[in-house]
Amino acid sequence: MTQAEIKLCSLLLHEHFGEIVEKIGTQLLRAGGQALRGIAGGTGLLLDQVKKALCVLIQHNLATFRPRRGGVEYEAQCGRILRILRYPRYIYTAKTLYGDTGELIVEELLLNGQLTMSAVVRKVADRLTETMEDGKTMDYADVSSTFVRLVDTHFVQRCPLVPEGPQSPEVPPPPAPTLLSSDKDMYTVPRLSLVGKGKRRRSCEEEDGEPRVKKQKQEGESSEAPPDDGIYWQVNIDRFHQHFRDQAIVSAVANRMDQTSSEIVRTMLRMSEVTTSSGAPYTQPLSSNEIFRSLPAGYNIVKQVLDQYLALLADDPLEFVGKSGDSGGGMYTVNLHKALASLATATLESVVEERFGSRCARIFRLLLRKKHLEQKQVEDFAMIPAKEAKEMLYKMLSESFVSLQEIPKTPDHAPSRTFYLYTVNVPAAARMLLHRCYKSVANLMERRQFETKENKRLLEKSQRVEAILASMQATGAEPAQLQEIEEMITAPERQQLETLKRNVNKIDASENQVDETIFVLESFIESTVKRP
After folding, report:
1. What's the burial of 195, exposed, middle or buried (CB within 10 Å: 0-12/13-18/19+)?
2. DSSP H stretches of helix in 60-86
3. Angle, helix 358-370 to helix 386-398, in steps of 10 degrees
4. For all residues of the chain together, what is the average pLDDT?
5. Measuring CA to CA, which of 48, 99, 362, 481 is 20 to 30 A from 528?
6. Considering Cα of 25, then 31, then 37, then 41, what sign does the dihedral take?
């Protein structure tokens, strides 16, 4: 874990959970696993504050616990904390695939960490009802069906549970429970008869002659425990990452070949999305007949044309699609590891070109293709003058985009009797670029915080004016009164607010763009680690 990762995790925890949670999360990241007393001593916080902050981290799956030496040890999950940066992308993907209902379901689960299905359905139905006009309400059954679809496609999964069973009176209970998850029940939705409709927060103050608060209290006392009490659900982040990876592969095929090829690859990935694990090197083998039957109805291509496309994809040098060797060549798979390596390499090439220019990018691509070259060979193959080639190689070497390998002819390693070969170590270059991306996101977050802090007074004034306007519009104020309130913010202040909004939007867009690069590099590095 690098300092850049720790700093970015600290900023994310502070922005989303506050100062106390940030202190404890950073302490756990720096010191590793610690007991409760050790955390309190390292942060200088009260035990009660530490307990509450740890509850928040565990609730949001940002920390884990395990029994150790008669006590409990807590450990922060750096990789899971960094995923907070990708929450907007998860929510947008759910909206794209499952509409507004899917968007709000994923948003509620991310906001709360873990929730029961009944609680999610109720919250989402209430929020959707708030946005509806003409007094319409959202039915619980509609939200429930979307939730089931999210579970069926593995975007939402069950949380691990404490195993049930009789506890022996002779054996003392463990200091911390052991959470177990069953693959069989991970995506099994309990049968619930959720009947009802969403409620609006704004309603009459009194209903049936009783004050609203009193009626809610009576209803709460008489209500029973929900039928799915104890079964909690969470967002399956790995499944979202699998979807992002598939989208990147489809886009790369479309850019390299054509739309029909990308649609064939998309169909192959869609057929294997649930049956293939996120770390698998290949998708499940598929025959051309299976692919043909699963193509979208809009693609009116005959079987012979599909076979030609599959042959072209299999013969492509990038090898995104390959033939399954154990089935006589009649089955096709998508080579996920090679696809991720190609995406990471393309990212490195684009960064080199943007940072050092097209000639450096030419040398970089040459080294990728030829693997090992001496300086003289680089000059000849790239057709670049010796002085310029030397400067470019040293520049990329100092930035760790290329590396130098020494091969001595004699044991004394004399420079005159040693070959110096330039090469590109793609995994090492990807790790270096990933480290810089973490630094970039941390700098962007600090810049956004600085911009907001500098304009804090103006933002508070704008919020007060908007609140006054909203309340006056609700009471039916005259247009002249509303205009008078709006004029409380002067023209220069309005211009300053517009500039701030524009700057913050640019920073947010930059964060999302850098995160896309982070995702490609992280996926490639994970695939190299998991490779058998």
Report:
1. exposed
2. 78-82
3. 80
4. 83
5. 362
6. negative
Q: What are phi and psi of 84, to 5 degrees?
A: -60, -30
Residue 95: both structure tokens together? 């909206």
At 143, list the tokens. Answer: 């939200």
What pLDDT score does 350 carry?
Answer: 92
**Interval 233-251: pLDDT, tens:** 899 999 999 899 989 988 9
Neighbouring C-beta atoms of residue 329, cutoff 10 Å: 11
Q: Where are the alpha helices (DSSP H) in 198-335?
A: 212-222, 237-256, 259-272, 288-294, 303-315
> How far, in Å, CA of 45 to CA of 327, rounded?
62
Cα atoms in the Cβ-side hemisphere of radius 13 Å centred on 269: 26
| Diameter over CA atoms, the chain | 99
CB 405 within 8 A of CB 372: yes
57 token code pair: 């981290």
Tokens of 367: 């080294």
Sites in the chain below the pLDDT cut of 70: 134, 163-177, 182-183, 196, 198, 200-226, 325-329, 530-532
Question: Residue 142 in contact with residue 196, Cβ under 8 Å?
Answer: no
Look up tokens 């009490």; give the residue: 229
How is residue 230 written in tokens?
């104890």
Q: Are 214 and 143 in contact (CB under 8 A)?
A: no
Class of domain 78-161+185-200+228-235: mainly alpha
Fold designation for 3-76: Arc Repressor Mutant, subunit A (1.10.10)
DSSP string, 191-223: ------B---S---SEETTEEHHHHHHHHHHHP
The amino acid at 68: R
Rg (CA), the chain: 29
CATH architecture of the domain 240-334 equals Orthogonal Bundle (1.10)
pLDDT of residue 272: 82
Paired with 230 in beta bridges are none
